Amino acid sequence: MAEDGVGDGTVGKALDVLDMVATKGRPVRFTELLADAAYPKATLYRFLQTLTNQGMLAYDADRQMYSLGVRLVRLAHAAWAQSSLAPIARPWLDRLSAQTGETIHLAQLDQAQVLYVDKRNAARPVEMFAQAGKVGPAYCTGVGKAMLAHLPPDALEAALKRQSFHRFTEHTLADRPALLAELEAIRGRGYAFDREEHEPGIICIALPILTRTGRVMGALSVTSTTARTTLGALEALAPSIKETAAAIAAEAESWRFPEQG
User: Fold this and answer.
1) pLDDT per residue over 45-76, tens digit each?
2) Pairing between β-strand 216-225 and β-strand 192-195 as defined by DSSP bridges
3) What are the residue ranges spanned by the domains of the chain?
4) Class of domain 84-254
5) Torsion of the alpha carbons at 236, 129, 188 and 148, rounded to the nearest 10
6) Residue closest to 52 by CA, chosen among 82, 28, 78, 81
7) What is the pTM of this model?
8) How far is the C-alpha of 27 from the C-alpha of 206, rounded, in Å?
9) What is the CATH T-level fold of the domain 6-74, as seen in this structure?
């Protein structure tokens, strides 16, 4: 990850350092960042000082640790309101959650990965990876595959190059040919499944949220466990999920939802 910003000048490198701190998920010392960085010690320190001065990072002098700054909170709220489907989708997610009693996820693509932008817990909540604000793999999640399946060829090729194809479970589609075959099947039936591909025992059905011209805006899923339901039972929910996805798409288009890269 530390090399991602190298070709993007000073701004790209500074954002790369910011990403390094964010990825840790906790306050972090300079020595930890230096161990992962592609930059010399003096360069890394200069970026950290600049980011701290700009409020993007906070520095605890007593513990000598860096953490994300409050300015990021303000920017995150603005991004959530302006570029996320979440504000528009909120009432539709509430309705689908009440109808199904299962976990509902709303996601968008971020650098060819899945960014979960909102979630509704099941009536009987289940512990799982996906949470609002988390980034997950696209190739082995229902929402990820639903979005990949509807990307134009050039965008799909670029996204495929960014997939790690790590095998999380025995069911993970761990290579490009297997994923391409799955994406073709998804396009044929209109929805995707997660067949315990990311986490054991976790299954879902997911549909893309598309504009009238077929551009991918996001995806919506209903998630449960093999302990209390089946893929067949989830598949029966496809019409309700499709209706919800269409309603979100219609509102997003009327709101002039920004183009996604």
Assistant:
1) 999 999 999 999 999 998 999 999 888 877 87
2) unpaired
3) 6-74, 84-254
4) alpha beta
5) 150
6) 28
7) 0.72
8) 35
9) Arc Repressor Mutant, subunit A (1.10.10)
Write the DSSP assignment of the chain as a string of letters. Answer: -TTTTGGGHHHHHHHHHHHHHHHHTS-B-HHHHHHH-SS-HHHHHHHHHHHHHTTSEEEETTTTEEEE-HHHHHHHHHHHHHH-SHHHHHHHHHHHHHHH-SEEEEEEEETTEEEEEEEE--SS----S--TT-EE-STTSHHHHHHHTTS-HHHHHHHHTT------STT---SHHHHHHHHHHHHHHS-EEEESSSSTTEEEEEEEEE-TT--EEEEEEEEEETTT--HHHHHTTHHHHHHHHHHHHHHHHHTTPPPP-
Arithmetic mean of pLDDT over the chain: 89
Question: Is the Cα torsion angle 98, 100, 102, 107 positive or negative in sign?
Answer: negative
